[in-house]
Amino acid sequence: MAEYDLVAFGETMIRLSTPLGQRLETSTTLDIGIGGAESNVAIALARLGRPVAWSSVLPRNPFGARIAAELRRHQVDDRQISWVDHGRVGVYYLDSGAPPRPTHVVYDRAASAIALCDPDAVDPSLATRARVLHLTGITPALSESCAEITRRFAACANKANVPLSFDVNYRALLWSPDEAAAALEPLCAAATILFCGRNDARTLWGIDGSNDEVLAELARRFGTETTVLTLGDEGALVRTPSGETLHQAAPAVQVVDKVGAGDAFAAGFLHGYLNGDIPRALRLGVALAALKMTIHGDLALISARELEAWSGITTHTVLR
Prior knowledge:
Layout: E1 4-9, E2 13-17, E3 31-35, H1 37-47, E4 52-59, H2 62-73, E5 81-84, E6 91-95, E7 104-108, E8 130-136, H3 144-159, E9 164-167, H4 177-190, E10 193-197, H5 198-205, H6 211-222, E11 226-230, E12 236-239, E13 245-248, H7 261-273, H8 278-292, H9 304-310, E14 316-318
């Protein structure tokens, strides 16, 4: 029996954000938090009552301690962190926007401890202790050692028949579309559950057309058992293992902070998927993403009871 419902590996950064209505160039205060695609998913699922573990590399300094303490506070098992005496924690600065002024992000993550790590310092066999392994396309972009660790985690999961959840999550500031497409294709093909945004499908692989056509081409190209196409304000589509396509519209929401909404969607979807219910997974994913956007910070600080109360949205089924 698996020890964890989900295991994730990736980088978590310190987030420094301006109060709403202030700019980075003039603000005298910054709110401090943490943010990382994989740990955002791990924390959201842990808050929903799932046993979760997160693996990463952190330096022995106050910022590393802050990240680990935050994970523990949300009941994420942090015992698989590799602690090192060199490198640094990546930082990102958020210039919080309000319509019509967009939010602007400035990254300072070069030479982070995880980017400089020795692949042999991280044990990928943790993946075999999970019901699902979750990885994203951000981590392989950080360095060749991070790409190698990501491949090792995926290989361990595949060998042990542990489903791999993979979120493409393309970051243009980290690498070019051609570099990302070449590196991520094998991981997409190894995935059991593939999350991909419509814009990422177009940017990396030139896949375009109607939403249904883009979803169908992703499923055909990578052969994934369950393929999810995220559509931002339009909600999301999923192609089930039986070939059925389901659509879930996004509810209206008063946005406080969009950062982390995609990770909240993945967490909500995986929460339903772990119970064997893909239509409910899609509904929960869209609901959790919407709820996350009402909260300041990267994290979906939502309980299972709150999610259930707000996820009573009809799923529209399109038969194929």
